[in-house]
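EI: anyone free to look at a 213-residue chain?
SC: sure, send it
EI:
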Amino acid sequence: MGSGEQESTSSSNETVAILNVYDLTPANNYTVWIGFGIFHSGIEVHGKEYGFGAHEFPASGVFEVEPRTCPGFMYRCSISLGRVNMPQTEFRSFIENMASEYHGDTYHLISKNCNHFTNDLSRRLTGRRIPGWVNRLARLGAVCSCLLPESLQLPVVKQLPEYHGYSDEDGVESPSTGTPHESTEMDDTDQEKHLLSPTTVDGAVTFIKEPQS
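SC: here you go
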């Protein structure tokens, strides 16, 4: 392989990690100037944005969306975190493995929220932390939980997605007969397969499937 071919391969593997920040409340417009606000964040890599959300099941809470379009939030700004030299296929395996560490039922506003996830993802990819102001609410809440409005004391899911099954034979998506709330009648094996399948919310959000053990 010539040097020009090697350079081309290296260039195609390289991408920029971008932190996309969203407002959870319009009040941020008044408080952000003093370094305080309530934010959601996701990290954009290889043309997709990855975030972490809450649901009530022991399965992946890591999801992907089109950059700067996470539903339920108001996009504020983007911050470059640095370059990443990782092919898309390698990154896909990386994010699937990371999803196994971030189950929806482990989400916690103070100790394991969406901004903790993006900070962890940024450190693993670039060696850099996200800006401190993005997750300042959690640090303040850890010191004095009474600072948090009652409505923010619990992890809130904007919309719990329906889960879909996929045929191993033809790869065609087939809707399940119920939502996660209705899955109590399935046996443990079916339920696990059901929960670990790719999921969507209005065609915009897809939960990352964990690697099969």
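EI: The first strand starts at residue 14 and ends at 23.
SC: 👍
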